[in-house]
Fold these 2 entries.
Entry 1:
Amino acid sequence: MMFRKSWVTVVSVAVAVLAAACGGSSGSSNNNSSNQTATLTVWLMNGSAPQSVIDEVNADFKSKYPNVTVNVEIQQWGDIGTKLDTALPGNTPPDVVELGNTLVAKYAAAGALEDITGKKTGFDNSATWLQSLTDSCTQAGKLYCVPYYAGSRAIIYRKDFFASAGVTPPDSMDGLLTVGQKLMDAHKSDPSFSALYYPGKYWYAALPFVWDFGGDIATQSGGKWSGALSSSSSQQGLTTLSNLVSKLSRADKTGDEAKQDAAFAQGHIAMIIANGWEVGVITDPKAGNPALKDQLGAFPIPSHNAGQTAPVFLGGSDLGVASRSKHQDLANAWIATLTGNKHMAEMATVGGVIPNTTSMLSLGTGINSIFFSAAKNSKFVPNSQNWASVENANVLPDMLVKIFTKQMGVADATKSASDRITTILNGGG
């Protein structure tokens, strides 16, 4: 997913390496780490790490810091920007924050995150961090956060539905429509059925269509940004997507994707554009439908050019330490534990997300290998400190809703969105 910037870096679990990485006052306090007494507040986002991983991280951390209490508070993506705006400048901010990679720039530019440039080489896998996440953590040549995990999207599908309809995964966008129409016909007696379930505000899944036709969100020249969604290439991609949504989806055209995995588990959906970790939600014994475990498959979002794949938005999160945290050494140590090799491997195999290092991409086996592979053809949103304001203004979701509900045509909706993006990225309101 997406957001901000200034985090503590990955450190080895070994105390000796941790002390070297933190340096300064952090290093001196770590000499007596077992004697430290404090309460550490950690903000993680809903759905980022399985509870089992969080529990193990806290247990490992507790073994080194027995007198430190860690309060992990789960936040929601919908209002995290507003909460961070209020909390980070305060006297008692959360010590550790998970930031979506597209919003890091805002908080780094505001001085809300610790500059960890001098500590990078002391952290696990810092030489092989995913480049897009490293880029999101970097502003004006300085490092403000530690890459946490990435998520690339592919299409999760029901193998049994495909088999009964006599179709196979398509290798083009035209093929996606043809397959979808055959699935709709095969399930025409089910008024709730969607061949491709697509909630209207799902802008992350819209970007591959824009990019595949050569369009973009915005371009930069001479230090100035210009919205590019109104270009003919961007409009072509969005028109293609709108046609798919119109013919294949019965999802709420004004809703978001937060619960699409739960909807998929109910049995009235053949395909969703999703992150790899959503497989685990769909088959969860408590909240999902474990009977679907052997019926799920995945394939890359196809390009309009047959045999190729569309570029995906490489979302993800970074981990940072608040610049006003009173426990920066402990915050660094907690992040080091979570992003060390042991728990990164768990995030990949249990959580189903792409770990923060290229050295672990081989952990993507089975269905996850599709998502890990999709990350190789990816793009990112404009890396501007004002991008967070574009997200907070809901420019892209609002544009899509207007298109899908036919409140506006593609040309008018994209022009309005492009004009708004131009204004915001260049510092306007």
Note: The two ends are 24 Å apart (CA to CA).
Entry 2:
Amino acid sequence: MQTETPHPRPSAAIWAGIACLIAGYVLSQFYRAFLAVLTPVLKADLGAGAEDLATASSLWFLAFAAMQVPVGIALDRLGPRRTAAALLMVGALGAAVFAMAATPFGLQLAMALIGVGCAPVLMSGYYIFARSFPPALFGTLAGAMVGLGNLGNIGASLPLSLAVEAFGWRATVWGLAAVTAAIAALVAVLVRDPARVEAQARGSLLDLLRMRQLWPIFVMMMLCYAPVAALRGLWVGPYYLDVFGATPAEIGRVTLWMGMAMVAGSFAYGPLERVLKSRKRLILGGNLIALVALLGLWALPLAGGWVTLALLVLFGFAGTSFPMVIAHGRAFLPAHLTGRGVTLLNLFGIGAVGVAQSFTGQISASVPPTPPEAPYAAIFLFFAVTLAIALAIYAMAEDRTD
């Protein structure tokens, strides 16, 4: 028999801590997306090609994913304050390593450290939402945190390209290291841990993996976030550079539009859930739109101009369903496994991005660039096929709202 913590009105102190975690998540979104804009300068200064950067991006996501199980245990046992503050300092160290990198390997090591540092931030916020707010608000709050965090996507677009032009990429990343360390300190001071769940029942990840209701949700988590994270996080930059000869500023503008679409999409999913009164139908519909946009990019890789930009914007808007997928899975979780449950769901989503980035790096290296759009058309098709598979499996999921 377990006792649920009641949900009193959240205090200003709780909101201050959440604000710090949101700031950390803005950085998390920034770091996973900034390689697209840095592609030209890293290629010129360090000789880092598309495959090198794909490996670096992959390591960010794989390190992030590998940390999800220990992060989940730490959230349930230590709470979000100590968990997020300690690991964010590792992220600050990773940014410093990036700023000092002299080879592509240095970039890859740095991205792995940054991935470790970013691993607890979103899940710490989700843990507080699940333990301190009414369950019916979880999907909306989760989407809002991702929407605000996606401001990092916007920062890692035109603003980043302007900063690099003004200060150089090394000085810019040193500044990011300092900001990351400052946010870690604020998290340590301001985040308030929710009351722990008192439960006689014990549980583990195996208990969660045995829940058949979660299986199709795991599959959707694996395959719905990877396309938008991989394209925005890396492949938009090399695609525009190799196919359209875009400048860093032009790549910055394209990624800015896509990032703004992802912000809007993250905020839209919560209200749409209340309109449709079904998480499953909303997730299916949103990802079907994302699939259509991916097929458009595959069929028209040379379109350029407003056509390609519109497809990327549509894809960014519709492809941000993963907070709602986590909300769908969270509705099945027992309270005493909340931390491990939400981080397990996140592991499936983030880990799949790391695997996908590694695989798409191999696609880029193995498909002859004659014509130059061929490797990118193959990447678009790969993500379209995997998303279609996810939709087919997720269609069998049990719907549940709070």
Note: The chain is about 80% helix and 0% strand.
